[in-house]
Amino acid sequence: MARCTAPVQGHRTASGRDACPACGGRSYGSYSSRSYSSYSAPTYSQGSGGVAGASARGSSSARPRWSPGSSSVSYTDTEVRALNPIRTTVEVRAVLPELRDVFLCHAWDDRQGAAKDLHDLLESDGVSVWFSEKDVGLGTPLLRAIDKGLAKTRVGIVLVTPALLRRLDNEGIADKELSELLAREQLIPVVHDTTFEALREVSPLLGSRSGLSTAEQPMADVAAKIAELVHI
Fold first, then answer.
1. Of 30, 130, 203, 213, whose CB has the highest number of CB atoms within 10 Å?
2. Euclidean distance between CA atoms 143 and 136, whole angstroms
3. CA angle, residues 62, 68, 70, in degrees to nearest 5
4. CB neighbours (10 Å) of residue 147?
């Protein structure tokens, strides 16, 4: 019987094992020594179903039906699902040409800050906005003006900020605006300098709505998405 050379020469390599008169050509399990030396690991390209193709944030880029092919705006699947019913409302109310595109609901404290910034960005993108700072004249009853504004717009935006959360917690005029908008598929929450989790603690109904957040994109990108959504 041939004697194994492993005690003297060792079998650290496949060629060494093959040269052994006792072990040469022997199979281990269902694979021979030559099978191991010829095996190479599979590779996964970016965009495949493997781990390498997964997004780091767990969301993918999607193109909604209302976004023009020339647009550079990028949406997540979650945003598209959240905005789809709003787009349907826009299309239904498009037959009413006298309506403005959006009603901007905001906290009083934000009227010269984040609300004004969002208003200006929307207007620069061609969106007509009902905004209390310019649409409520001196001496005009505020609640009556809000009623008219809600009736004459296609969709509503609520700018959710720490100031708005304080107002909602204490109740106020913003509650009336939100109640009207929540009664229809007409409301887009835009969260700024806070979170949806904080919103749900104050208003579970409003917080249950998906929307847009400036924590994930600049305010200008939020305005661009709203502009694409309401343009017919």
1. 130
2. 10
3. 95
4. 14
Known catalytic residues are 177
| Cα distance between residue 153 and residue 186, in whole Å | 10
The predicted pLDDT at position 191 comes to 97
Whether 132 and 217 map to the same domain: the answer is yes
From CA 35, how far away is CA 44, in angstroms rounded? 22
A 10 A CB-CB count for 129 gives 21
Structural domain span for residue 203:
59-230
Query: Any idea what DSSP says for residue 93?
Result: H
Note the maximum CA span of the chain: 112
**Pairing relation of β-strands 153-160 and 100-105?**
parallel
- The CA-based angle 105-160-118, given to 5 degrees, is 60
% of the chain residues with pLDDT over 90: 44
Coil vs helix vs strand at 154: strand
| Kind of pairing between the strands at 31-32 and 27-28 | antiparallel
**pLDDT tens digits, 56-79:** 333 567 889 999 999 999 999 999
Say which CATH number the domain at 131 has.
3.40.50.10140
Mean pLDDT of the chain: 77
CB 181 within 8 A of CB 150: yes
